[in-house]
Amino acid sequence: MSLISYIGCNVKLPEKGYEDNPIDGGIFLGPTYADVDEKAEVKEAQFSTEYVYEVTFDSWGMELTPYQDKDTYEKSKLGLEKVCDMMETYLSVGDYFEFYTCWIGDEYNPREADITLTIRGWYTEGMELREQTLIRFVKSES
């Protein structure tokens, strides 16, 4: 099984998959691992937004958990920071995007948590953002 991350927003985004160059230094936005049914399932079960995209950083889904080694944790943190940087350019103040990670095939499983963070300054040392957590990142005034 593979860990997969999705983002949802109310803005249409340009998709770039593995056949294209990555956007924002290693971020792929578009079809990678999930099939059409899995994407439809996760949209219905987890997201409140009009558009849902598969997003990966360096070919993997992103989560922050103490069970990862330090390098994997830091790579996931960097990936999520890059996703936030990318999304900040598409959103207006007060808008949000949703981020959800799960194992492929677990799209319909119940959420374990639901949290809201700001796009800027969201990280705190040792933070844990595990799979099956819906994270709503809100753009606030800088």
From TrEMBL:
This is Uncharacterized protein. It comes from Paracerasibacillus soli.
